[in-house]
Amino acid sequence: MTAFAVQNTSIETAEIKWELRSVNSRFLEMHFRLPEHCREIEPLLRERLRSRLSRGKVEVSLRTVEDLTTAALQVDDQLVSALLTAIAQVETQLPASTTLSPMELLRWPGVIKQQEPQNLSQAELLAGFDQALDALCAGREREGATLRTLLNQRLDAIAEILSALRDELPSILERQKTLLQERTARLVQDVDPARLEQEVALLLQKADVDEELDRLAVHLDEVRRILLTQEPMGRKLDFLMQELNREANTLSSKSVALFSTQAAIDIKVLIEQMREQIQNIE
């Protein structure tokens, strides 16, 4: 699932900013951008992510900046020298220009060095990370609730198609039986009526899709049941989408009427829509 979380924490000597991003992935992939002096906590971060997430590509970034109100300011002397040289060159061409004051010079980006705090404790860093992870999981849960609603809508649509097809199936088979008898009667002379009836029954049996409709209904019920659970369900739903698609393909191949062919196509479209959404589910 996709989600984004930011957690800013101010402590006595520094500002700590965590950013967590999550995008869709079949497996759990973790990528970290941490300051060198914080690399030692990466195994702990991985452990925390694995305990809360099972799928998704997660990017974790940490930025720590020393609090300038409590730390001695450090000026980038090289940058100041370069700025003064550039100012002198401009003054030769614009003698009437106003010289920059020291305060204006200090406001120039990069003149005051941003210091990386070196004495941050693991507890302080992990506390901010845990808060950011809580926010990320909350965002994923909100998206999951929306996806559950969308999936249930498509399950309802498939169930309606199956119901309509089941109601129409006897008429389809009866029309197919009549058509086969008429065609056979025109092609064959002196045919044994019993033998003809037997052959027609075999053909109609191959066209009967009651079993496929039953299996599709069972799979729909299983998807609904899984959606009500609180455990990771993405891989289970992936498998069920494959089974639903397999039954829909069989339904299409056994179709002997336009109505059932269109029903199979509509079902496959809805299954594909669900399959795409399920890639977002943990």
UniProtKB/TrEMBL annotation:
Domain spans labelled Endoribonuclease YicC-like N-terminal: 1-148
Pfam families referenced in this protein's UniProt entry, alphabetically: YicC-like_C (PF08340), YicC-like_N (PF03755)
Residues covered by the Endoribonuclease YicC-like C-terminal domain: 167-282
Source organism superkingdom: Bacteria
UniProt GO molecular function: hydrolase activity; RNA endonuclease activity
Cofactor(s) listed in the protein's UniProt record: a divalent metal cation
Keywords (A to Z) from UniProt: Endonuclease, Hydrolase, Nuclease
PANTHER family: UPF0701 PROTEIN YICC
Family affiliation: Belongs to the YicC/YloC family.
Protein name in UniProt: Protein YicC
Organism (species): Nitrincola lacisaponensis
Organism lineage string: Bacteria, Pseudomonadati, Pseudomonadota, Gammaproteobacteria, Oceanospirillales
